[in-house]
Amino acid sequence: MNPAPWKDVTTPGVVRASVALAVSVLIGQTAIAHEGHGHHHHHEHTHHSLDYSLSADATPYAPPETAGDGYYWWKGNLHTHTLWSDGDHFPEVVAQWYVAHGYHFLALSDHNVLSEGERWINPATDVHLARQGGIEGLELYKERFGNHWVETRPSGDGGLEVRLKPLGEFRHLFEKPGRFLMIQAEEITEGAHVIHVNATNIRDLIPPQTGETVEETIRLNVNAVHAQRRATGQPMLPHLNHPNFRWAVTAEDMAPVEGLNFFEVYNGHRGVRNYGDDYRVDLDRMWDIVLTKRLAELNLGIMYGLAVDDAHNYEHSESDVSRPGRGWVMVRARYLTPEHLISALRGGEFYSSSGVILDTVDATSDHLRVEIATDPNSDATYIIQFVGTREGYDPSSEPVTAQDQVGKIADITGRWVFVQAVADRDANRQILRVYDETNDEWHEGAVTLPAGETRPSGPLYLPGHPERFGFGGNLSEVRFWHKARAREDAENDMSSRLEGEESGLVAYWPLKESEDGYAGDGAGSNPVAIRGGRFEGESILDNASVLATSGGDFGLVEPTGAIVPGSNSFTIEMWVRTDPEAGGWNLPFEWIGGDRIYVGQDVGQGWNFVVTTDGARTDTQYGEPGEVVEIRATRRYSDDIGEVFQETAGTSAVYHFNGDEIYVRARIISSELHPNPFASGERQKAWTQPVIPGIGLIEAPDH
Ligand SMILES: [Zn+2]
Ligand SMILES: [Zn+2]
User: Fold this and answer.
1) Residues within 5 Å of ion ligand 2 by Cβ?
2) Ligand 2 centroid vs 576 CA: distance in angstroms?
């Protein structure tokens, strides 16, 4: 037997003393003990804090399971956000969560930034820490890590600033040979084509690059990682993130990128649409299409599938956009080092999981065998599917088309209009009404909401998501109602100020003043941060000022709390005047990952009001109502691609290759639900990597 690559092997589930200082037990012991058996439980509020000065060594490290011949299964997450970009906690709190939940490695991959250099944030005004209650988030950080660790300084305005520690300083609290490793990463985040590429174990920051097309943009960013690897000699791994996020990437975009061998087949963020829709393939099918094209048509080598968290919201966050612990990889390697992990990943020596734990993945030239690690305390049952494409498959494909439900309902550049956007859950309709004051005219469009899908409950951004869109123009009288309002309702009160007490009114920003960078809520306690906007005297109503913003700035961002829409009907109303000089895309309102009611501008064209459920359309695709339009989506292929060769109910299965398969992979589906408030019925799964009959696992090439 090979010696373990560390000294102090212990049994799983035992809470180990650690060399790290200043960390407390985050969660109940039961949650930790279950982790190794493939369950993920949210025991968020069973934590008890220990005084770190008394119990400095309370962090439970999870020993890895053995994987034969001196190998171990290392559990890790390759996609994680902190306050360095748009995550909502300090990096130490984030790392501590992963240590306490049985992970062995963690890559912090913030958007277009490395956790390095000097950075201070104001906990009272930081929009991301605001999801943790701002100062409350700081208090939790202090409680966990102590006043001697947390660095604060007075800010210029009499407040307080906190230092975000660089990875090079805090990793020492957590890293432990053979137990926990931190890896520097970056989510290279490109805006024009919405291409996000994770670069794992990079050394220097890589700025995003934009190409002419989606394909070219993926290629440029992936190749930038390869170039740095070659220049430094340091192993690095680029992977394409969440292809279905904003429907950015199709199989046809992805397949021809020579240097791309890894993508996210599962991402835990609720807005990334792993499952596709009526027009877009789910990521499992996208994987099969890409594999078939690369291996049988393009001769471009393997594509491996990763599961990741893409976590942004930790512990006490009021947002459920992306919690940690939802997707991970189990890497079979001897040593817990970046080089060994990357080498194992490149060799396909891993599987991806959203809850199912495997004992064995036996991939040879003539068979693929899978054994599930079962939990005696669980009555979960499993289906093991062997999936692939055979030689002689039908390679033909057809474009995806749809009959347009929506169209342009008004052109309203440069003048005041009253917008009423309604999600009517009872009628299952999403409606946009626009009153054009200049012509005294109402316009209306509506679509059917998709049935049966759980509604989003995250924060609302006004106007638009702060990291993606700007709004150019003026806003006034922003109102949020927890009910479906009618046109007549608007006609009755759009031309006067509200009292704030009206039935169903949950937030109201007349936008007449700014206090400390916030606009006060006239109906409740939902102040919104003002970024880049200024108040002007000119007004559509008596007594009301307006907020003026220019393209690239943001007026109101992320009000929270009571106005979270949940599953209720709701209505958003506001007076809007667009600025024709501002250019680009503008969205007066948007929910991340939810249905969208766009008020958008086609680049180079006039303004268009569009109601869409974010399904049939991308931003620039719409015709006249009733017109059949081609949708930018993965084309439709025959069922020969991604055929299920064999399906077994049980906890182990073997598939012997016929020899005519181009590749074979296994997908394991548990009867256990994967807790997901945004996709009811999601099951825990595992995905093994594709095997080539006659060869076995193949290595992703160096590029
Ligand atoms: Zn992303
Ligand atoms: Zn991300």
Assistant:
1) 187, 310
2) 32
**The whole model's pTM is what?**
0.73
| pLDDT single digits (tens) 151-167 | 999 988 888 999 999 99
**CA atoms of 215 and 134, how far apart (whole Å):** 40
pLDDT one-digit tens code per residue, 193-243:
899 999 999 999 999 999 999 999 999 999 999 999 999 999 999 999 999
93 CA → ligand 2 middle, Å: 18
Q: How far is the CA of 403 from the centre of ligand 2 (A)?
A: 33
Q: How far is the CA of 144 from the centre of ligand 1 (A)?
A: 29
29-117+166-395+641-688: which CATH number, 2.60.40.420, 3.90.78.10, 3.40.50.2020, 3.20.20.140?
Answer: 3.20.20.140
Strands 152-154, 119-121: pairing is unpaired
Cβ distance 345 to 304 under 8 Å?
A: yes
Domain boundaries, the chain: 29-117+166-395+641-688, 119-165, 405-626
Contact yes or no for 90/110 (Cβ under 8 A)? no
* Beta carbons of 197 and 109 less than 8 angstroms apart: no
Identify which ligand lies nearest to the alpha carbon of 240.
Answer: 1
Smallest-distance ligand from the CA of 248: 1
Distance 109 CA to ligand 1 centre (A): 10
Tell me which ligand sits closest to the C-alpha of residue 311: 2
pLDDT of residue 518: 65
Give dist(CA 186, CA 109) in Å, integer: 4
Mean pLDDT of 241-250: 92
Element (H, E) at 200: strand 196-200
**Do 696 and 400 meet the contact criterion of CB atoms below 8 Å apart?**
no
Rounded distance from Cα 80 to ligand 2 centre (Å): 6
The token pair at 351 is 């599987």
- As a whole number of angstroms, the distance between CA 323 and CA 131 comes to 13
Q: Which residue has the higher pLDDT, 483 or 432?
A: 483
| Contacts of 59 by beta carbon, 8 Å cutoff, 6+ apart | 16, 18, 20, 23, 25, 96, 99, 100, 174
Report the pLDDT averaged over residues 473-489: 86
Separation of CA 565 and ligand 2 centre (Å): 24
Structure confidence by residue, pLDDT tens digits, 494-522: 988 888 899 988 888 877 665 566 677 77
